[in-house]
Amino acid sequence: MADYAVQARKSAGGGLTRFLYNTFIRNLSAKIAATPMMATVLVVFVGCTLWTVWYSFTNSRLLPTGEFVGFDQYRRLFATSRWNTSVNNLVIYGSFSLVFTLVFGFILAVLMDQKIRFESAFRTIMLYPFALSFIVTGLVWQWIMNPTLGLQGTMRNMGWANFTFDWLNNPRMVLYALLIAGLWQGVGFVMVLMLAGLRSVDDEIWKAARVDGIPTWRTYVSIVLPMMRGVFVTAVVLVGSGIVRLYDLVVAMTDGGPGISSEVPAKYVYNYMFGAGNIAQGLAASTMMLITVLIIIVPWAYLEFGGKGRRS
Amino acid sequence: MTTTATVSSSAQTEATDVKSRVDPRGPRPKPFFTPRKIIIYSILFFACLYFLFPLYVMIVTSFKTMPEIRWGNIFAPPIEWTGEAWTKAWTSACTGLTCQGLSPGFWNSVKITVPSTIVSIFIAAINGYALINWRFKGSEIFFSILIFGSFIPYQVMLYPLVMLTREMGIFGSLWAVILIHTIFGMPILTLLFRNYFAALPVELFKAARVDGAGFWRIFFEIMLPMSLPIFVVALILQITGIWNDFLFGVVFAGTQNYPMTVQLNNIVNSAQGSPEYNVNMAATILTGLVPLIVYFVSGRLFVRGIAAGAVKG
Questions:
Q1: Which residues from B are below 8 Å from A26, CB to CB?
Q2: Which of the four, A12, B17, B123, B225, has the lowest number of CB atoms within 10 Å?
Q3: Domain residue ranges in chain A
Q4: Over the stretch A36-74, which tens digit does the pLDDT of each residue have?
Q5: For the domain bounded by A81-305, which CATH number is listed?
Q6: Closest Cβ opposite residue B136 in set A30, A46, A255
Q7: Are the C-beta atoms of residues A76 and A278 closer than 8 Å to each other?
Q8: Is residue B30, in this structure, part of any structural domain at all?
Q9: CB neighbour class for B246 (10 Å; exposed up to 12, middle 13-18, buried from 19)
């Protein structure tokens, strides 16, 4: 791709004119056109991030004017039970969500890849929740899991007097309630990604495996799965950075409850910044979120783009 | 769902017959109802039940009356179909502050989505074009940071952006939300357009340059007319993404400009008095309707759009 631009550059004009043209006019119009992008990068992605990290070391409360206090905010953060619960919840929700999304996504993709009929109908049904917002997702499942009138009440009215499905009111199960809703929204998308990955596997591989008498399931596990490493890595990065941001779903479905048993870091940040008027505490928490994302992204970026040079 | 996993592995174990796997171009000689097929279809069928169940419950609940809901059967279709809940959700449901229903939220969402979509796509298209055809020193670095920045959690940049928009005097207005959506839509859209323009034949660009066309003229007269497909993908991506946004709406829009998602959440979660589940579900469907229509109308393109847009998260 880069070559095209170089060719284009070479083909434009000649001699001094070209030199002047290249140095001023061409650069100028492109730079003017790219000003919004450069401003976004410098001011928002670099500037705002650095600002947040910097002010997380202050004692700002209602306004970001505080003085430097070192790691005090972080010490306080990890001494707050609500934050620790939030992190714990995110780890539990995140690991289950990641594993189940990938496993179910892959299994469904394999089933969809068996030359079935009505494939597009199945895909439409599995993917439509992904078009809906987390607010909608959370509210629907909140209603389904309503203890008196939802699934539990219905089953009890139908005769199963001991049927229990009160996860929204059960501090130990509420995370799994969120998980059911989260999977409902996201599995279809991972399925589509995986299906695209399966379809990109060469037919020759299947033929070779068949000639060698390898059973289908074995071909999937030992040959196709390793070949889909790239798709899996992409899915892990996408699902993973989505999990760290988990916010809307919790707000809509449980609002952190019962008690603080389904609080998540993104909600902690929001509440401290805009509710509790303790900005630096919120900034410290958001810096921890940033670090988490970096831990996921940097190894991936290194694997994906390091060594081989930049790829688009 | 655990049963799904176990059953499907047994489905593959039983799959001793691999012929159909191997030769996709041949005729389909086998009978349709092999045990293997039956297992595959039944698993997919049960998966679909899980995916369709909430939609069914939403629709059924929204057409019931409250007394009927209190009987406690979420499966049962309404005995008496009534649209009252829908009217109430649209016109008079209470959000905790006002009782005007969802319609103000709907129009706010329209007022946010339309300009945000247009501005963000236009800027991203120019970015992609400049990055491919008019590279300047440092342009690739900016692009790399832009892509990397799309992974930074929004919460990290939220407070500085609040201060920034406050300084600009637009905090708490539609302008602030539009600006924020344009900023956070930029990475993925720029990537989309950049890759699309990179795949166009460069000869077109060269010929135009030789003929003396400049930056804007090439963009408007050559690049734009050729990039309709990617515009559609970007459009789908932005409409659904911005419509579904909650965080930016609640932070930047200001109370009177709350988008539909925020108002929906307020109606359901902070309303006073006994909850009216039929109204809640009607309101939920109404909020999901726009992205659902986009989804069903666009079909395959939506898949392409979100596959590209997933980076946005």
A1: 134, 136, 215
A2: B225
A3: 81-305
A4: 888 888 999 999 999 999 888 888 877 777 788 888 889
A5: 1.10.3720.10
A6: A30
A7: no
A8: yes
A9: buried
